[in-house]
Queue: 2 jobs
Job 1
Amino acid sequence: MRTATLTAIAFLGFLGAALAAPEAASIGQVKSVNGAAFIIRGGARLPAHLGDPLLERDDLETGDNGTLGVTFNDSTLMSLGPRSHVSLHEYRFDPTTRHGNFLARMRRGTLAVTSGELTRAEPGSIRIQTPRAILGVRGTQFLVRVDE
């Protein structure tokens, strides 16, 4: 009886903590998937599906035959080519003021970006970090390639 009571108390404590924990806000979503494409979140490598939400700190990865298209909350579009890996390190966007910042870290592959509201309100607010440089986006479209 005592074990059952302790188990019930532990379960209720766990349930309360889970309910109180804030859910991470979506920063965008998957708009297109072809071939092998994954979202790496909290150490889990999840197959990407159309409509999947993206969170800050997610990694995006494509296989040899994979491509992945995403749209962020400020309408920035990002397309990853085959054998690409991009970390969504930091994303902030206030839809009222249209201000914020976006930092993605690109390890390898190809990446095409069409900037959205962030760079219209604040040129340079989107940055792409590669192993050798950091690109501050001021224009509307660009392509990056990082060889392994």
Job 2
Amino acid sequence: HRYCKKLYLLKAQSHDATQEFFWDGRQPLRIPALQQNLIFQMVKNGGLNPEIAGKNLCVRFRQGGEKIKPVGQKHTRTLKNLLQQQSIPPWQRERIPLLYLNDELIAVCGYWLADAYAVKTGDGLLPVLVDEHSNLIAVP
């Protein structure tokens, strides 16, 4: 692939961007196509409201038309625009897990958290992708 005047040599990877995973956030969620687990990591002074752990969360991938109001920003933005501004290569964009609560996008894992679900002070949860063989433990 070529992107932003750089050449990328990648292994062929299959990925079905239409798949959905239902998750309560308490145990690692294995995402086979990414060969990674999604966990919540406790962080100081940031992250998502800890009350979302135990709720019916859904992990999906980009289909187009997604919007989010990132923490600290005044306006809702399209995910397409945010990804372009961060110069994330197009072939990586469809592999970024999107975390939903009640069909509302609350996190773009590794990038943005929705302002409405973020803690303003105190500890919060950060959705993190980890290697399948990592020793990190999900939030109890």
